[in-house]
From TrEMBL:
Membrane-spanning segments: none
Cited PANTHER family: CALPONIN-HOMOLOGY (CH) DOMAIN-CONTAINING PROTEIN, RAS GTPASE-ACTIVATING PROTEIN WITH IQ MOTIF
Residues in Calponin-homology (CH) domain copies: 62-170
GO annotations of cellular component type: mitotic actomyosin contractile ring
A GO MF term: actin filament binding
Domain of life: Eukaryota
Residue ranges constituting the Ras-GAP domain according to the UniProt record: 755-982
InterPro entries: CH_dom (IPR001715), CH_dom_sf (IPR036872), IQ_motif_EF-hand-BS (IPR000048), RasGAP_C (IPR000593), RasGAP_dom (IPR001936), Rho_GTPase_activation_prot (IPR008936)
Biological process terms in GO annotation: mitotic actomyosin contractile ring assembly actin filament organization
Matches recorded under SMART domains: CH (SM00033), IQ (SM00015), RasGAP (SM00323)
The protein's name: Ras-GAP domain-containing protein
Disordered as annotated region, ranges: 1-37
Length: 1406
């Protein structure tokens, strides 16, 4: 059974306290067991026996409870989940009692045990099962408790008494063992005893000792004999000492007699020899010294008396004048303050007079008359004022009318002038408007006309027909008139000519018809004639050309030359005129071609050889790349060191703060604080060398490479391999997190493990380390969700990996939350009058307090009201509604600000959300997305965003600590956001915020969508471009850690090894087995030496263990390396053509030039102390492995590796080995991305360093303040120890100090001499070896201090003045022993033993 932690002041232990005679294991009341200091007052100091009796009753009751718990655990064969003190709460639900009944009655009686975390009335069924069981066993009713005794905790001792009686009954029947006796074997703290005693007040205590006899009496059977108590070791020693008491007394008497006689003889002999001379010398010396002092004092007084009187008078005058001048100056400088004080005094007097007048007017009769008189006076004054105004208006009526007319005229004229001016300015516009209006009107008229015409179409047609008829008639009439005139002949001639023409046309038509009939005969004849003519012309022209062929050729050449030169001159002129444009066009064309190739490189599925050839130079590291890489490594180291330094400073601040608090509680001292301050000092070269020597002397593997032997070096290698294994195999740390989350471990162990894990991954500052830590979180999430039976376990849980994730995200999270929430949080803080209190009761009380503060009188309103009463108050309701509206608006703005900042959120936070969402969907596929979003919100909002809202000063959002009112307002906003994150509206148990449920419902939908969007990111491998070559080609970064942290992690792994590994041949088990345990911590000096940081390189012990793709990965690397070399020397249209081209001498020379250039570049970098690239891409394309080969051999190797990959089905010659080209293109793209990422890392690290410097400055200032406080406290303590005390003359202390002063050995902080008997009576001195307490009056103890915090104790023989022992005690050692609950302390190599607490009290008293 687990024991209760030991109390520092009260301990009931049967082996250290005497038993009461006749009552075994019953504790004797003694003054050595005082009541707790917290309860000791002037009334209880004298009643120590009553206090002890009460505590004794509580102690015995708890022992009986422990007996019952031990018996129940033995019956159930399992450990109860609660302790002895929590037994009453643990039994209330009846689950344990029902299980106890099921042990003997089985399922027949106890069919189902009701279990629920909260106490419900249904738990009474469990208790009823127990009642049925004990009655079946025949337990008398007088031993059975009532239901309310347990369920309502009315009489818990009766319940325990029933369990005791049941154990005796079952033991009598042989069904169970009898309950044990634990009196004097358990230990409890003062608080537990006092709390138990309070619970026993008013409850009758059963007789647990006689339960067996009472049970036998009620059952009318013979009582069982009580078992004889076993003799303890303490009792056995007491019995043996009692048997030999006479012999011991005789021996002690003989020894004391011999020592006393020897001391007495020596003292007498010395006194006899020097007695006469000493007495005479002392008396004469004292007389001479006294006479000289008296004479000198008299002479000085007589000589200086007149001068002293004058000096005193002058000094008093000077002092009086100075005081008067100071008072006068103070009055002048404080004139404004005095004036204000006088004004305040006059105001106070006026207020008092006013209050007196008000009190006198509070009499009902007087106040009614005064009110009536005031009303009548106000009415008279008002009427008089109105009559004066009316009379004045009557006199001025004509003038006012005239003035109004003039004013109206002026106003009208001004308006007319303004209107005319506007019209003048807008004349053109008006004209245009008028024209547009006229056009519109014309169009309208035309449209109306058209519509009218359409409506009257038939009438118009008839009208037109009639009009045409009239016109035709008129023309006919006109023709008849013309025919009747004298010109009729002219018209007849024309008619005749027309007739002749018609006849001619008729004849011609007939000829044409005849010709048409003869066409087939005429056409061939015409063709033959034309052919003859053409041939004659052709032969004539041919003969001419043949005769002039040379001249024609020369002429054609001249003409073509002229035309060509003309066109060339025109083209050159055009080029010269448009030269700049041509250059731009060429540049644009080349840029287009380059962009097309780059687009093909970055986006196309298949990349051509030409594209690879154009961009192959991107795979080479430039000087800037090396500079940036060195800078990144330097900054990363500084960031990690800065984080560790800040953590160390924060730990120092926390330790100093804690120790100062303990000092106030008299647990620690200023000396320990000074020691802690000295630990935080500079590490000089000498200190470093001394530390290395100390580590080397203890065989520590971290002492340094120059001082390691073979064993230590092997251990160092194993630790390097161990941490590499933990870094690259996430399953080990994931299982460790899972197991430690479910254990009640010390907080220090968890914090140390978290710190080591973050150090192992470099706080995620590098690409590789950040990728690996995210893989660790992925494995931990899967481990947690795999073990969760329901999704609500994930929502409510707080696993260990979340704490590590919060610290990992913190540097990037600070910048994100500052950018996303800065505006909103500062808006809340800047509004000084803003109040978001949503409890109407608190609003009502605040209004009552304001009213009392404003009026100075108690409010007539009731102060204690309920929620509904407060809401019913009109003013409170208005204020309450206004607060809810403000809270609604602010919450909406916060939600919008957070949901709109998704793209700014660090990838680490989003990746954790992604892995959590995927794992939840796999484990709980039937749960809706809303439930998954709730689990995401518990991580994203509650762990990452909520702390920034509640405490913005810790995230550098505000420069200083915010006011309490602003923090309350932010807490209200946080409450709303937390409720939205929970995915449910406010329930009826929170009526204050239920009016906002409609908005909460809307916000939940928006919040759920946002959380799912947060998790929508690519996986870590895609984001960090981590492929199969990452861990094989990227060199791990060293970690900066202390040996103490290494050993702490080693200890944690060994403790939980069985839960981390599967099988005997696991790699982790092999390494830990070879390390053979954790080194011993050793002394404080060795521990301090191991507390300094070291650089631990990480190595892979099991590199020879290839994964299934290791050989294939090597083939890819060699093939790509060879192909790049071929493309540099023999570029072609496709890779197959380049491979088939023969190798010539020129190719060999070009290859040698390429190799020479790389060697020269490497030498330059080595000469400039450039570090080699540590990225996978760089190692892939360096020519170290092939530059010693000829180009022909390189080509053979490339063809061989390509054929091997083709055999494995990875590439094919059908597409020209396009797979290799695509792989190289991917590497080129990654190279560019790496440069971009490196610049981002530089910016992020510089920003992180800035914040780290600020925090370091803050911690340093705090440490300086603590150190100043320590120094001032040390000075105060020294002054207190060194002050002079009044010593009574002719006492032991008086003669002791006089002897020290004569010898010139007076300690700086005092010396005190006590009799050993005096210290023994006070309880300080417990024993002295080989000395009886009866002889303590012959021994003196001297306590002195000549150095702050160091006390010297000496034991001397009182008569022989012989020092028997001396030792130095440091205050820090005494306080440490007290803090470790040590009650006594051995001194002088065990010769003496003192009470530690009383010794400290005596030292502090003096």
């Amino acid at each position: 059974m687990p024991s209760i932690p030991q109390s520092p002041t009260v301990a009931f232990d049967g082996q250290e306290q005497g038993d009461v005679a006749g009552l075994p294991n019953r504790m004797r009341l003694s003054r050595n067991n005082p009541a707790p200091k917290t309860s000791a007052t002037k009334f209880t100091i004298g009643l120590w026996a009553d206090v002890q009796r009460h505590l004794l009753q509580a102690y015995e009751y708890l022992c009986h409870v422990g007996e019952a718990q031990q018996w129940i655990e033995g019956c159930l064969q399992e450990e109860l989940p609660f302790g002895v003190v929590e037994m009453d709460e643990g039994l209330r639900n009846g689950v344990v009692l029902a299980k106890l009944a099921r042990i003997w009655e089985g399922e027949a009686l106890v069919r189902r045990i009701f279990e629920h975390p909260k106490l419900q009335y249904k738990h009474s069924d469990n208790i009823n099962y127990f009642f049925v069981f004990v009655r079946r066993q025949g337990l008398p009713e007088s031993f059975i408790f009532e239901l309310t005794d347990l369920y309502n905790k009315k009489n818990i001792p009766k319940v325990i008494y029933c369990i005791h009686a049941l154990s005796h009954l079952l033991a009598r029947k042989g069904l169970a063992q009898r309950i044990g006796n634990l009196l004097g074997q358990l230990q409890f703290s003062d608080d537990q005893l006092m709390e138990t005693q309070k619970g026993l007040t008013g409850v009758s205590m059963p007789n647990f000792k006689g339960v067996g006899r009472d049970l036998a009496k009620d059952m009318n059977v013979e009582p069982e004999p009580e078992p004889e108590p076993e003799e303890t070791e303490f009792e056995r020693r007491g019995r043996l000492l009692a048997e030999a008491e006479e012999s011991i007394i005789q021996l002690q008497a003989i020894a004391r007699g011999y020592l006393a006689r020897k001391a007495m003889a020596t003292a007498k002999a010395r006194l006899r020899l020097a007695e006469r001379y000493i007495i005479k010398l002392q008396s004469r010396s004292r007389g001479v010294i006294t006479r000289r002092v008296v004479q000198e004092q008299r002479k000085e007084q007589l000589d200086l008396e007149p001068y002293i009187t004058k000096i005193q008078a002058q000094a008093r005058g000077v002092l009086a004048r100075r005081r008067f001048a100071k008072v006068k100056g103070a009055l002048r400088s404080s004139r404004v303050s005095i004036t204000n004080l006088q004004a305040l005094a006059r105001a106070k007097i006026g207020r008092k007079k006013h209050e007196q007048v008000v009190k006198s007017l509070e009499v009902p009769i007087i106040i009614s008359g005064v009110v009536g008189m005031q009303a009548f006076a106000r009415a008279v004054l008002k009427r008089r004022e109105i009559r004066k105004k009316l009379a004045t208006l009557d006199r001025l009526d004509p003038k006012i009318i005239l003035l109004q007319a003039h004013a109206r005229g002026v106003i009208v004229r001004r308006k007319v002038r303004a209107q005319l001016a506007k019209l003048d300015d807008a004349t053109d516009v008006i004209v245009r408007i008028q024209a547009a209006c006229r056009a519109w009107l014309a169009k309208q008229r035309l449209l109306a006309l058209i519509r009218g015409l359409r409506r009257s179409t038939s009438g118009v047609v008839q009208l037109q027909a009639q009009a045409r008829a009239i016109i035709a008639q008129r023309k006919a009439v006109a023709l008849r008139k013309q025919l009747t005139t004298v010109h009729v002949s002219t018209g007849v001639q024309g008619l005749q000519s027309l007739a002749r023409a018609a006849l001619t046309r008729r004849r011609v038509g007939e000829v044409v018809k005849r010709l048409d009939a003869a066409v087939p005969d005429v056409i061939p004849l015409q063709a033959l004639a034309r052919g003859i003519l053409v041939r004659d012309a052709f032969w004539a022209w041919r003969d001419y050309l043949h005769s002039a062929q040379a001249e024609a050729t020369h002429l054609q050449a001249l003409m073509r030359g002229v035309l060509q030169r003309r066109r060339f001159r025109e083209k050159m002129k055009f080029y010269k005129t448009n030269l700049s444009k041509i250059v731009k066009v060429q540049a644009l064309f080349r840029a287009k071609e380059q962009r097309e190739q780059y687009r093909q490189l970055t986006m196309a599925t298949n990349v051509t050889v030409g594209t690879i050839k154009n961009f192959v130079h991107l795979l080479d590291d430039s000087e800037a790349d090396f500079e940036d890489e060195i800078e990144v490594e330097r900054l990363r180291k500084k960031v990690v060191e800065g984080i560790r330094e800040n953590q160390h400073l924060e730990t120092e601040v926390s330790d100093l703060d804690t120790k100062i608090s303990l000092l106030v509680q008299n647990v620690k001292s200023f000396e320990e604080l000074a020691k802690a301050r000295r630990k935080h000092g500079a590490d000089t070269a000498a200190a470093h060398a001394a530390r290395s020597s100390l580590l080397a002397a203890h065989g520590d593997p971290f002492a340094g490479h120059h001082s390691l032997d073979q064993t230590a070096k092997r251990k160092l290698e194993l630790y390097q391999q161990l941490f590499y294994l933990l870094q690259t195999h996430a399953e080990y740390l994931a299982r460790l997190f899972f197991h430690m989350s479910r254990l009640q471990l010390a907080e220090k162990t968890k914090r140390t493990t978290e710190r080591v894990v973050l150090t192992l991954f470099g706080y995620g500052q590098e690409r590789r380390e950040e990728f690996l830590i995210l893989k660790l979180f992925q494995a931990a999430i899967i481990e947690e969700i795999k073990a969760a039976p329901h999704i609500h376990e994930i929502i409510k849980g707080y696993p260990m990996y979340v704490t590590v994730a919060v610290q990992y995200v913190r540097p990037k999270q600070v910048a994100y939350v500052r950018e996303a929430l800065y505006t909103m949080i500062n808006e809340v803080i800047s509004q000084r009058e803003l109040d978001l209190e949503t409890d109407p009761v608190q609003i009502y009380k605040a209004r009552v307090n304001d009213e009392e503060a404003r009026t100075g009188k108690p409010s007539l309103r009731p102060k204690d009201v309920s929620f509904h009463e407060a809401v019913a108050d009109p003013e409170t309701r208005v204020e309450f509604i206004r607060h809810l509206q403000k809270l609604h608006f602010l919450t909406r703005d916060f939600v919008n600000a957070i949901t709109g900042s998704t793209r700014k959120m660090p990838y680490g936070m989003r990746c954790i959300a992604r892995e959590l969402l995927l794992a939840l969907r796999i484990k709980f596929p039937n749960e809706p997305e809303e439930v998954h979003a709730i689990a995401l919100g518990q991580i994203i909002y509650y762990r990452f965003l909520n702390p920034a809202i509640v405490t913005p000063e810790t995230f550098d959002i505000v420069p200083t600590t915010i006011t309490p009112s602003a923090r309350r307002n932010l807490a209200e906003v946080s409450k709303m956001l937390t409720q939205i994150t929970s995915g449910a509206v406010f329930a009826e148990d929170n009526p204050c915020l239920t009016p906002l449920n409609s908005y909460v419902s809307e916000a939940i939908v928006q919040w759920t969508t946002w959380l799912i969007e947060v998790a929508d990111v690519p996986e870590a491998g895609v984001h960090f471009h981590a492929n199969e070559f990452l861990d094989a080609t990227v060199q791990p970064k060293p970690i900066y850690i202390t040996p103490n942290e290494v050993y702490a992690m080693h200890s944690v792994l060994i403790t939980h090894l069985d839960h981390l590994v599967i099988g005997r041949n696991d790699t982790l088990r092999q390494i830990l087995t070879e390390l053979d345990g954790v080194p011993h911590l050793g002394s404080d000096e060795l521990k301090d030496a191991r507390d300094r940081g070291i650089t631990l390189e990480l190595t892979n012990r099991f590199a020879h263990i290839q994964n299934p793709h290791a050989e294939e990965n090597a083939l890819w690397v060699q093939a790509k390396r060879g192909v790049l070399a071929i493309l540099r020397v023999q570029p072609a249209k496709d890779l197959v053509e380049a491979l088939l081209q023969p190798v010539t001498e020129e190719h060999e020379l070009l290859w040698e030039d390429i190799v020479d250039k790389e060697l020269v570049t490497e030498r330059m970098r080595m000469r400039k102390a450039r570090m080699p690239s540590t990225t996978g891409r760089d190692d892939t394309y360096r020519l170290e492995d092939i530059r010693s080969l000829s180009y022909q051999e390189v080509k053979k190797h490339a063809i061989y590796f390509l054929l091997e990959l083709e055999k494995r089905g990875k590439i094919t010659r059908g597409d020209g080995y396009q797979g290799v080209l695509n792989a190289i293109a991917t590497d080129v793209r990654s190279k560019h991305w790496k440069r971009v990422q490196r610049r981002e890392e530089l910016d992020g690290m510089n920003e992180a360093l800035t914040h780290l410097k600020e925090r370091k400055k803050f911690f340093s200032e705090q440490i300086d303040e603590y150190n100043k406080y320590v120094e001032s406290s040390m000075e105060t303590m020294q002054r207190g120890k060194g002050k002079k005390r009044i010593v009574l003359p002719f006492t032991k202390q008086y003669f002791h100090l006089r002897e020290l002063q004569k010898a010139g050995k007076a300690p700086q902080f005092g010396s005190f001499r006590y009799s050993a008997q005096e210290l023994y009576d006070k309880g300080i001195l417990l024993s002295i070896d080989q000395t009886s307490p009866r002889q303590f009056d012959k021994i003196d103890v001297i306590i002195s201090s000549d150095k702050a915090g160091v006390f010297t104790l000496e034991i001397k023989d009182k008569y022989l003045d012989i020092t028997k022992g001396a030792t130095d005690l440091k205050m820090e050692e005494l306080l440490q022993a007290q803090y470790e609950h040590r009650t006594s302390l051995s001194l002088f190599d065990g010769m003496a033993k003192v009470n530690l607490n009383l010794l400290l009290y005596q030292i502090n008293k003096k």
